[in-house]
Write a structure and sequence with these properties.
The complex is a heterodimer of chains A (419) and B (505).
Chain A (H helix, E strand, L loop, with lengths): L6 H5 L2 E4 L12 H7 L3 E7 L1 H11 L9 E5 L2 H5 L1 H18 L5 E6 L1 H5 L4 H11 L4 E6 L9 H10 L10 E5 L4 H14 L4 E4 L14 E5 L5 H9 L3 E2 L7 H15 L4 H26 L3 E4 L6 H10 L4 E7 L8 H6 L5 E5 L2 H11 L3 E4 L1 H9 L4 E3 L2 H4 L8 H17 L3
Parallel strand pairs in A: 1-12, 2-3, 2-4, 4-5, 6-7, 6-8, 8-9, 10-11, 10-13, 11-12, 13-14
Chain B lengths: L1 E3 L7 H11 L3 E6 L8 H7 L8 E3 L10 H17 L3 E6 L1 H6 L3 H6 L7 E3 L9 H16 L15 E5 L8 H14 L3 E6 L5 H5 L6 E4 L2 H15 L2 E3 L6 H15 L11 H6 L10 E6 L1 H14 L3 E7 L5 H10 L5 E2 L3 H11 L3 E4 L1 H10 L3 E3 L18 H13 L5 H9 L33 E2 L1 H9 L2 H17 L4 E2 L1 H11 L2
Parallel strand pairs in B: 2-3, 2-4, 4-5, 6-7, 6-8, 8-9, 10-11, 10-13, 11-12, 13-14, 15-16
């Protein structure tokens, strides 16, 4: 329904680069998805590299009976296709026998499984029929197709066609949020007077929402292009809003939902005002420290554009370059409008050339991955490692202060250290 | 297909990265899809490296598949050479690139780069990290070693040795090299070259100028050492100096090879610490040992001969060294455990009911779950085992480190005595938990092995609960074994104390 002019955002030049990309693949999404989907298991069909990646990304979490694993392809699986499908059936049977509590099983494609064209969709359909009481789905989290958070997009997009049809008017919030944030948002929607709010993903398979022409959906995360398309195929309509980062982003997000559901504007603003004020108070301390500081974001999660908007408009930072692995122009149109003039937008990556630009522009704070953070610190740059922004609660009014603190802390640390 | 949650080793190209990152002046061009750069953070975070690993990834994506990926590889190799100007370049494929069958060796040779290019064949679907590291180091030595270089005459100079095997991401490799170098210096022996850690391709070329090789980590350096034996006639010293006794053996052997006087060794504190009365309580402590074969075998000797423990389990995850671990296990009267499945290790630990586990990061977590004290002796390890402080495993200082780090997690003699005296005191109660596990450790008790077969009378069960938790598993196991042997189905207070008397040492 957005009729806003997009010219400014559309005209903004984007540097598109190809070359070495220092990013995670979509498999990494499993690390937070499996915490949210409490009765799901994520079975990667891949190589030892995939298992090693999950282990490195999951850190110590791997020992709390995690609900993910890797079916490692071996030499003999590469010999013939029929064999690989039988092997997969065997592994899944073993797994489900061991974990009786599993209600959803995701077969997650990897680079090796995509390259040998192992048909996981067919396998999922076959296994779904064979194991009653367990819904088996497949999606790809391979590096050749997905970057980091796009793994969540692929997972949710795979869920959408299986959702029941629901004609009723309802608000659907899309994107994984920590439970505490989801609960805060639930309370706020109720106070606003939006009664029927559902969540995708849901915590359990039995709680999955329905979808239909009455569904208006609100993206909580900027990396959900495929999921959005799948929802629109089912008749759902997107509510255009800023992403709920910071006091202003959250206000805009809730207001957009309120407008879409015919909530009285004055009532909505009245409900949101105290939350917005509290968030602004929480931001004040970090704002003092961050105002005027230059900022360089390397591509990682697609959160970079809304984060840069938040850091620029609410904390007075000066972004130099905002890199993103993929730029979804339509979903980010309003975010892009609010970015200050002169910001270099970049999509994709040639990491060596991008690091040359970091060195040339000498930002006060560089947001980057863990593979680059310490080497840049050793060169004298202050860094904020990006992956924390995906694992920590950062959305909504009551997390605005924490989000600002994530960026303020590395700068404060540099000031306090006397060694 | 193999269902895996945890893997002890990464894929072989990670082994190759460990070699490239360890060396200076080498660059590795890796044909790999987007996402494989995750491995960089093992080096920058776990080892806290100040530099990025010298690796260029082609990071191909789905749209590149087809003949485009070959061009991508050549471009990446050209760019990497122009930017980093390495003395030598490694080229190879990760698991996915292995499937698309571009030929990194052929593609790079077509570029005629002005530096040696070493192609790596690392079969990702059959081999693992340690093998990849060993193979990469061997290929580097084979390609770069100058066969015309031989040691100068011995007159008027000290003997010199190469130290082979230390890498990046190696468990305590940094400090082991320092400790062994000091030890050799005291014996009047110089280190000619440490490789791969810190070596340049130019230095590798001179590897033949040493009088002999010292193989510190067989997992990494054995293939290269064997080739050097064949091609240069360089003798290899294979005793790994981990522990007081092994260090003394090492000194004797190195002195024999080098033809020097085995100088009076500066001993460690371990023998006295081990003899002091507070260590009496260590006698016969049941210890389960798992890790890479080299560290596990060395640990078993230290545990039995130098600390007086009883080794109740011994195993390794690297099949390449199954023969060595089998021989060592035989010596301890044990069946070796050779597996890369941590669930199998967990089962073996549960069955052995040890009082101490020596293992990797995984065993640390298994032990935590089973509430058994544990110390780390082998990779894979997490960030805390790349410490700031000096902490070798090898040599005499290494023996000191081993004593402290293994005994620390055990409840020491005096503490154990106090615990028994005050076992009903609120601070020593079960609910308080073991101090090193923290207040929030899961209150899980190891599942009794034969619980279904026997029945415990309530008062016997209650008495059992009065026994401190860290020996309770053993008491339960002993009592049940005792009852089973005598066909007692109902364990009473009497059975419990009969069994205690029976097993009293």
């Amino acid at each position: 329904m957005s009729t806003r002019p997009l010219d400014r955002a559309d005209c903004r030049p984007v540097l598109r680069e190809r070359g070495q990309r220092e990013v995670f693949c979509g498999l990494t999404g499993i690390i937070w998805l499996h915490r949210k989907l409490q009765d799901a298991f994520f079975l990667v069909v891949g190589s030892r590299t995939c298992a090693h990646l999950l282990q490195s990304a999951a850190g110590v979490m791997i020992f709390a009976e995690p609900r993910f694993g890797t079916a490692i392809i071996e030499e003999r699986d590469l010999a013939g296709m029929a064999d690989a499908q039988e092997e997969l059936d065997r592994v899944v049977s073993e797994l489900l026998a061991r974990r009786g509590d599993i209600r959803q099983l995701f077969l997650v494609g990897s680079c090796p499984s995509e390259v040998i064209k192992l048909d996981l969709a067919k396998a999922a359909a076959r296994l779904d029929a064979r194991h009653s009481g367990v819904r088996v789905l497949s999606y790809s989290g391979s590096g050749i197709e997905t970057t980091f958070t796009e793994g969540e997009d692929a997972c949710l997009a795979a869920l959408v066609p299986t959702l029941p049809r629901d004609e009723a008017a309802q608000l659907l919030v899309v994107g994984t949020l920590p439970d505490i944030v989801e609960d805060q948002f639930s309370r706020l929607f109720a106070t606003l007077g939006i009664d029927r709010v559902r969540w995708l993903p849901a915590r359990r398979a039995a709680e999955l929402p329905g979808v239909g022409p009455g569904t208006r959906y609100l993206l909580a995360q900027p990396f959900l292009g495929e999921t959005a398309r799948a929802l629109e195929d089912r008749g759902a309509v997107r509510i255009d809003a800023l992403f709920p980062l910071g006091a202003e982003g959250s206000t805009d997000w809730f207001l957009a939902a309120a407008r879409a559901f015919g909530v009285d504007e004055l009532h909505a603003r009245g409900v949101l005002a105290p939350h917005r004020e509290r968030a602004k108070r929480a931001l004040a301390g970090a704002a003092e420290r961050l105002a005027g500081k230059t900022l360089f974001l390397l591509p990682d999660s697609q959160l970079e554009v809304p984060l840069a908007r938040f850091l620029a408009t609410e904390l007075g930072m000066a972004p130099i370059e905002v890199g993103t692995p993929f730029l979804h122009r339509r979903h980010l149109a309003r975010e892009l409008e609010l970015l200050p003039e002169g910001v270099q937008l970049s999509e994709g990556q040639d990491v060596e050339r991008q690091l040359d630009r970091v060195r040339a522009t000498r930002p006060d704070l560089t947001v980057c991955g863990l593979g680059l953070a310490n080497p840049l610190e050793a060169e004298g740059f202050t860094t904020k490692w990006a992956i924390e922004l995906v694992f920590s609660p950062i959305h909504g009014f009551d997390q605005a202060g924490d989000l600002a603190e994530l960026f303020a802390r590395p700068l404060r640390r540099r000031e306090v250290l006397r060694v | 297909m193999q269902l895996t949650v945890w893997t002890y080793e990464g894929p072989p190209h990670v082994g190759a990265m460990r070699i490239a990152t360890a060396m200076e002046g080498v660059h590795y061009v890796l044909h790999a899809p987007q996402g494989d750069t995750y491995a960089d953070l093992l080096f920058t975070m776990i080892e806290r490296s100040r530099r990025r690993p010298p690796v260029t990834y082609t990071t191909f994506q789905a749209r590149d598949l087809g003949k485009d990926t070959a061009e991508l590889f050549q471009q990446a190799a050209r760019d990497a050479h122009a930017r980093f100007a390495p003395q030598a370049m490694l080229v190879g494929s990760s698991c996915t690139a292995e499937l698309i069958q571009d030929d990194p060796a052929g593609l790079t040779s077509a570029l005629s780069l002005p530096c040696p290019v070493i192609p790596l064949e690392l079969p990702s679907y059959t081999r693992k990290e340690n093998w990849g590291a060993g193979e990469t180091f061997y290929q580097i030595v084979r390609h770069l070693a100058d066969k015309s270089v031989t040691p100068p005459p011995r007159e008027g100079r000290r003997p010199r040795a190469n130290l082979l095997g230390p890498t990046a991401l190696g468990f305590r490799h940094r400090d082991d090299v320092i400790e062994v170098t000091k030890l050799l210096d005291r014996l009047g022996i110089d280190v000619h070259l440490v490789a791969p850690r810190g070596a340049t391709p130019a230095e590798i070329a001179t590897i033949g100028a040493a009088d002999f090789n010292i193989l510190l980590y067989p997992e990494i350096g054995d293939t290269a050492a064997r080739w050097l034996e064949r091609s240069f006639g360089l003798k290899t010293l294979r005793t790994v100096p981990i522990g007081e006794g092994a260090t003394r053996d090492f000194i004797a052997e190195v002195a024999a090879i080098a033809g020097v006087d085995p100088a009076p060794a500066l001993p460690s504190n371990l023998p006295w610490w081990s003899r002091s009365v507070d260590s009496t309580y260590l006698t016969g402590k049941r210890v389960f040992i798992f890790g890479d074969a080299t560290h596990a075998i060395a640990a078993a000797r230290v545990a039995r001969d130098e600390l007086g423990f009883e080794v109740v389990g011994l195993g390794c995850y690297n099949r390449e060294f199954a023969r060595e671990i089998k021989a060592a296990a035989r010596e301890h009267g044990l069946t070796p455990l050779v597996t890369d499945d941590y669930l199998a290790v967990e089962r073996a630990i549960q069955e052995a009911q040890p009082e101490l586990v020596l293992g990797t990061q995984m065993e640390r977590h298994i032990a935590k779950r089973l509430r058994i004290p544990c110390a780390v002796i082998s990779a894979p390890v997490h960030v805390q085992d790349f410490p700031a402080r000096y902490s070798p495993q090898m040599g005499f200082e290494g023996a000191n480190v081993l004593f402290d780090s293994w005994v620390h997690p055990l409840v020491m003699g005096l503490e154990e005595h106090l615990l028994t005296m005050f076992r009903d005191d609120f601070e020593f109660s079960d609910e308080a938990g073991a101090s090193h596990l923290g207040a929030h450790a899961a209150p899980a008790e190891p599942a009794p092995a034969v619980a279904e077969a026997t029945h415990w009378a309530p008062e016997a069960e209650q008495e059992l609960r009065k026994i401190p938790f860290f020996v309770r598993g053993k008491a339960r196991r002993n009592t049940e074994a005792f009852a089973a042997e005598r066909g007692i189905a109902h364990i009473t207070l009497d059975t419990l104390y009969e069994a205690k008397a029976h097993y009293a040492r």
